[in-house]
Amino acid sequence: MARKKVLVTGGAGFIGGNFVQYMVNKYPDYDIYNLDLLTYAGDLTKHKEIEKKDNYHFVKADIADRDAITALFEKEQFDYVTHFAAESHVDRSITDPEIFVVTNVLGTQVLLDASKAIGVTKFVHVSTDEVYGELDFDPTTFFTEDTPLQPNSPYSASKASSDMLVRAYHETFGLPINITRCSNNYGPYHFPEKLIPLTISRVLNDQKIPVYGDGKNIRDWLHVLDHCAAIDLVLHEGANGEVYNVGGHNERTNLEVVKTIISTLGKSEELIEFVTDRLGHDKRYAIDPTKLEALGWKPTYTFESGIAQTIQWYLDNKEWWEQIISGEYQNYFEKQYTL
């Protein structure tokens, strides 16, 4: 029997990178292809442990480059596509929305066309709960798969647009798809510009920690390894054409998250510095994952166990995040892959 070929776009990023490692290690009989352009958030050093494995393959390419993507799909004839690649930092989308449209919308269309042309078995589009907009602080309200899309930032608008394209290719062309929408992820290899790794690195260096507004914005935190297991399940068992929300049942205010990290590391809350709130800052996100749980998924991490594991990981892997902050990681591709 021919080996299954799985394309993971954005496999040098945070969630995609963890998924690449998860798949390479769990499915030695699958060939896992990591496709990434290696923009500022693309880091290959995280894959040192798997890059010599026979079932791991790296391809440097832009998902919006139609010629390159078409040629790659025609050559490899992928069975599955799991699409993580995206510009994802909200602040950057406010400063420069155009790159978010090019990568997240046009890039997704290029992948859909290539997938349709070769007849992939499944296209899983990894999206975000941010496409639903925001919830108020009523703890009884949650996002479901039927919640209308009301994105509030250029980032979430670009993701909502790509979601609609994926749905349209299913409805119009019969492309087998699933869409997953996750809450905020955290865990190993999280790029240091994001709240949790930024806070950890700054606390360890006794630097001020910026907190937007009053810090009362609420997010539902999902450990990245729980997210990987969810996508694996949807890839293999998800009903064709369906959307699945992935949430961690772990709502916390941003201020609570920061204070938990400070307390765990034994530092002072005087490091907290409240700063001007982000434009269009959504109040609250909260996911109802009942539909996915009916498929057989449950998160294994509570926030308490997950944040403890994550903090310990950053303590144990200081060399990794220090070379991310310094920018040294950007030289890894040239050293390892072009010599």
Automatic annotation (TrEMBL):
NCBIfam families: dTDP_gluc_dehyt. Keywords: Lyase, NAD. It comes from Niallia hominis. One of its GO terms (molecular function) is dTDP-glucose 4,6-dehydratase activity. CDD domains: dTDP_GD_SDR_e (cd05246). It holds the Pfam family GDP_Man_Dehyd. Its EC number is 4.2.1.46. The lineage of its organism: Bacteria, Bacillati, Bacillota, Bacilli, Bacillales. This is dTDP-glucose 4,6-dehydratase. InterPro entries: dTDP_Gluc_deHydtase (IPR005888), NAD(P)-bd_dom (IPR016040), NAD(P)-bd_dom_sf (IPR036291). Its cofactor is NAD(+).
